Amino acid sequence: MEKKATWLVIHPSALLIAFILKQFLINSTNADVFLWPIPQSISWGIGPPIIISSNLNISSPRQMDLNRAVVYYRELILSEKWLPVQASANPTSLPSTEAATNYSLNLIQIKVEDISADLQYGVNESYSLIVPDQGGTATLETVTIWGAIRGLETFSQLIRVPSGKSEGESIIEHGVAIHDEPKFAHRGLLLDTSRNFYPVKDILRTIRALGHNKMNVFHWHITDSQSFPLSLASEPLLAAKGSYGERYIYSQKDVAKIVRYGRSFGVRIVPEIDTPGHTASWGVAYPEIVVCNNQFWVPPGVAWVDRFANEPGPGQLNPLNPKTYEVYKNVVDDLANMFPDTFFHAGGDEIKAGCWKNSTDIQKFLQENHTLDEALTRFINTTRSFLTSHNKTTVYWADVITSTVAKVDPSLLPPSSTILQNWDAGSEGTKSLVQKGYPVIASDVDWFYLDCGFGNWMTNNTNLDQDFNDDPGNTFNWAPQGRGAGTGGSWCAPYKSWSRIYDHDITANMTSEEAKLVIGAEVSLWGEQADGAVVDSRLWPRTAALGESMWSGNRDAEGRKRSGEANDRMNDWRFRLLGRGIAAEPLQPLWCLKNPHQCDFVQ
Amino acid sequence: MEKEKKAKWIVIHSPALLIALIVNQFFIISANADVFLWPIPQSISWGAGPPITISSHLRITFPRHRDLHRAVVYYRKLMLSEKWLPVQVSAKPTSPTATVAAANYSLTWLQIKVRDISADLQHGVDESYSLNVPDQGSRAKLEAMTVWGVIRGLETLTQLIRMPSGKSKGEPIIEHGVSIHDKPKFAHRGLLLDTSRNFYAVNDILRTIRALGHNKMNVFHWHITDSQSFPLSLASEPLLAAKGSYGEGFIYSNKDVAKIVRYGRTFGVRVIPEIDAPGHTASWAAAYPEIVVCNNQFWVPPGVDRFANEPTPGQLNPLNPKTYEVFKNVVDDVASMFPDTFFHAGADEIILGCWKNSTDIQKFLKENHTMDEILTRFINTSRSFFTSHNKTTVYWADVITSTEAKVDPTLLPPSSTILQNWNGGSEKTKSLVQKGYRVIASDVDWFYLDCGFGNWLSNNTNLDQDFNNDPNNTYNWAPQGKGAGTGGSWCAPFKSWSRIYDHDITAGMTSEEAKLVIGGEVCLWSEQSDGVVVDSRLWPRTAALGESMWSGNRNEEGRKRSGEATDRMNDWRFRLLRRGIGAEPLQPLWCLKHSHQCDFEQTF
């Protein structure tokens, strides 16, 4: 059943970035190979370099997604011609007993044990890749096609051009044997497409970059209060009225394309429709189901604690209105069909009491001796059945059981079909959730929020009337002794550097049984201060740091944190991502790449 | 004296396909007929007539002048091709509603008049202009003292032009006739770009200069060299770049510099070179190891006073005569490559640990000399190299204020010396002007654009712990387990546009003192930036300084007005995108569609 793929080019061109990168191609000084994320086990031969034949064939079982991946990676392998930018103090592979030979690699043979395993949570992604010392045929053996896609990525990273050459044939330094598998099953990125919109091609490029980092989840925070950019067959008005406009809507065709593209790179698309908070945008089509919207987010005279939302503009679904559930069920039914993943993220975060209390319906309900917990419970209870009827595993933000404003009783959310995502309580918070039996996704703001540290984005901030002040509580321009400090008004400052992300332990202080319930992690880019103009530099290479810590782990053989050791690989990877059309931001002066470890904090 | 000349309409507008694609999606949102100007003119008075169409055959007549000619070619093309439809929806229309009786008024001729065609682009040149568009269109007049004022007026005219609401095709319009009288509040309105830590392609620099022009900014302070690399090719000292740059593709040639200077003149932007010395010079050692001390060592060797504030260490040796040979050649070359009368000579951040690492200097100190004497020898000797070219030398204020090594102010006469203040706020600026110096304000706490991106040093073992309770460990300080601190960025937080905008560079000064503050600069030091991110690091934040330096940052009642400026700033970000500048987003698009609903305080 093996089939030769036809060699279509699906690698998007990236002329601009290629142009920027071009200048870096002349710098290499030795024959290193930098892999990201680093495989669990790699063992190099010591033979001479093996040339990658320009007629390289890749044979693989017939499977649509794998065949697409093979087409993409063959093109990448033959065209990338990578010459490392990073100079390394210690060569990463052994020197060969150099006797230039004519060894060449003509075939990669992919063998998959279980061709039918679908791309779902927990699918086996392990692979073994053997390149013989004399070239010829490389074998890539895996349990599933999704493991094969990981192995193809690794193979592409092994390929480079010989030192000092930027043209001619690519090589692998030596034969090599790699056995690899992920440490965590859920390795993701959250992108918020509601605060600001991203064109489909930005999303596709982001998914491809996730694949390059062996990450497997694109958590798509589709809707929020600011806009509703998803076109739905049963509820067309939501996007027609609640989006930013005609060109700011994802069509069903767009979604299908994104899901299909994700499968080419082994990336699951997990949709999130955040409710009952974060829903002002629903109020444009259905004003009757949303409360507290169309008002200033902290009306003058309203106490901060009673604010309608944590940011403009406010609006929450009314859980007491039957119409709410009509609309919501239509939304869920449509989404469940559009997204094949068994995970469905239902939000459930940041209920503001002030917003619900702004509704006369809810005021009356509370006067009848009901509580906000009951209001939320009614909503979660009713809506959850919509999701489970589609056999979805529901994911909620941990707030749903931990919020002090409104929460539900955990007994209503069985751990067998519920996953909680922890965004604000560190590994302590994660621990308390797994102790309740829940599988948990870690995405703590203090380490994993990529939007932090860009200052306050609200306007008309009269705190700035003063150049600085001595009040640490005024974080906008706190400047003790006239020297700047504070957060600049970013609620989650500081900016999370790649090494901070990399070195964070999501299972700190847990027993091994507890740690097993931590299924993985996500970095998150909330969209208040990001859009397509900056998305690549906001995400990359910082998201890659999570990619490695979740795939390979973040500790060395002696159990110490290893962002320091990973530095050379990370530096080269940033430039290689550039070469692959991902506009990743620079991490250090180029001097540091030419002088390995001279830019360390500790020698 | 005014020979009018028809320009040939050559295209010099650089294409920006990628960004145009990004911005393309934003064209359909406009709801009313507002005009958003940046920086806001000092005086603007609208007519009340119907919209005036901009004729696609618009004729621009102007006196013969090479730079002006280039500017006219560029701006005419922009006026006719930009087809701007605002993204921002304004609560209050920015121009009066026309008593619309759709007329056939059209603007067919822009007549430019310049009083003094010979005034050169130098510090303090008159940039004022008057622009008059009659209610019935036909002929607009742009009058200025100098060609540099005309260039400012052309920029304003492009911003007045937009598409009628709801249309993205057809002819652009000006809403009504209008009369504008405008001039800058400060003479020196600049941006510092560091091309040593990371390299920027010439294209990136040209695009940055063009963006400065769009913001009526007039100084590109080019921090060319530093310890990490020496990217400037010099005829007299070719080895410095050949050995001290990042490589062949990372060098600015004489031709590149000429192109950059010429392009700057097209947009009224002076290009001021900085060769930082005697600190920040490790890169000189690749060619001349004998003139640099403390280099080729780890920047903070275990157990030693640090050699530099960051990798890599290296300072010129003021006791070696060879140092001055090389330095004089450098100054002679750079002085002839850059026509500006300002020459920035650096002199910041002398680190004693570095000089003390030299046996020469150790010996000198033992002979009862001081570090101040060492620096004084260097400054005294090298300063004559600049003055012999009639350059006004600019130094970082450190040169007279540093506690490590400083010179006596009497050696630096205010008539030919300008100081740039990067720390200590307006208090320190005040102390400098009180000594009689003209000062450029670029305080780190408000004007450094590289701040807040975390610590960029690798192998930071502080991160072995997820967080700690020590506020002095800023890398991952997390009181009560909640993140805080600077993330290791030495100058955190990130400076938002409103923080930049609302900063007063002359706070607490008498009007006499304030006169010596010639202006401000925002600075992008490049440890964590390069061509890939330069646009989003610079824009639109640099535009905030552009307006505060040109228009001022207070309203008629004397209150700070970043809040009032919000709608204009939001629209300007998108217009910069349209013009090929990859400016970063400031708010959810929702905020642009709901004017002032994203305010921190509801006062509008």
- Rg of chain B over CA atoms, rounded to whole Å, is 25 Å
Shape of chain B: globular
How confident is the prediction overall: mean pLDDT of chain B?
91
Remind me, CATH topology of the largest domain in chain A? TIM Barrel
β-strand number of chain B? 18
The percent of residues in helical segments of chain B reads 25-40%
Task: Give a quick summary of the entry.
By secondary structure, chain A is an alpha/beta fold. Chain A has helices at 15-22, 64-79, 145-158, 200-212, 236-242, 252-264, 282-285, 322-338, 353-357, 360-367, 372-388, 399-402, 426-434, 445-448, 498-502, 512-516, 535-539, 542-551, 563-579, 590-594, and strands at residues 2-4, 41-44, 50-61, 104-112, 127-131, 135-142, 171-172, 176-180, 186-192, 217-223, 268-275, 290-291, 316-317, 343-347, 393-397, 418-422, 440-442, 518-525. In chain A, strand 3, helix 2 and strand 4 form a beta-alpha-beta unit.
Characterization of the model:
The complex is a heterodimer of chains A (603) and B (604). With 603 residues, chain A is of the alpha/beta class. Chain A folds into two domains: 12-182, Chitobiase, domain 2 (2-Layer Sandwich), CATH 3.30.379.10; 186-293 and 318-452 and 496-551, TIM Barrel (Alpha-Beta Barrel). Chain A is 31% helix and 17% strand. Chain A is built from 20 helices and 18 strands. Chain B is of the alpha/beta class and 604 residues long. Chain B has 19 helices and 18 strands. In chain B, helix 2 runs parallel beside helix 3. Chain B has three domains: 2-182, Chitobiase, domain 2; 188-454 and 491-566, TIM Barrel (Alpha-Beta Barrel), CATH 3.20.20.80; 455-490, no CATH class. In chain B, strand 3, helix 2 and strand 4 form a beta-alpha-beta unit.
